[in-house]
Amino acid sequence: MSSLKELQDLIQEKYDIPPEKLAPDASMRETGLDSLSIAEFVFAIEDHFHIELPDDDPNIDTLGELAALVDRVRAAKDEVKKAA
Fold first, then answer.
1. What is the model's pTM?
2. What is the DSSP letter of 62?
């Protein structure tokens, strides 16, 4: 299940960004977030989903790309839980 809707809700709640600006292909910078806000949002995502996102993925620009990364990290975490 994609985390896109949860991310859209989280960013809307945290930064009061109108839903129409939160399309999957919307650049996070185009939504009005600066670098500091994006970093804070990443921390909020980690807290919300109880995951740790990798710091070394510079290709994440859109909400859809971020949702795909969150989904991959969550799936990997679930696999580790199943193996334990």
1. 0.87
2. B
Q: Which residue has the tokens 């795909």?
A: 68
| Domains within the chain, CATH numbers bracketed | 4-83 (1.10.1200.10)
CA distance 70 to 84: 21
The radius of gyration of the chain from alpha carbons, rounded to an integer in Å, stands at: 13
Q: For 30-52, what is each residue's pLDDT tens digit?
A: 888 898 998 899 999 999 999 99
Q: Does residue 48 contact residue 10 with C-beta atoms inside 8 Å?
A: yes
| Long-range contact set of residues 9-17: C-beta below 8 Å, sequence gap at least 24 | 10/41, 10/44, 10/45, 10/48, 11/41, 11/63, 14/40, 14/41, 14/44, 15/41
SS3 42: helix
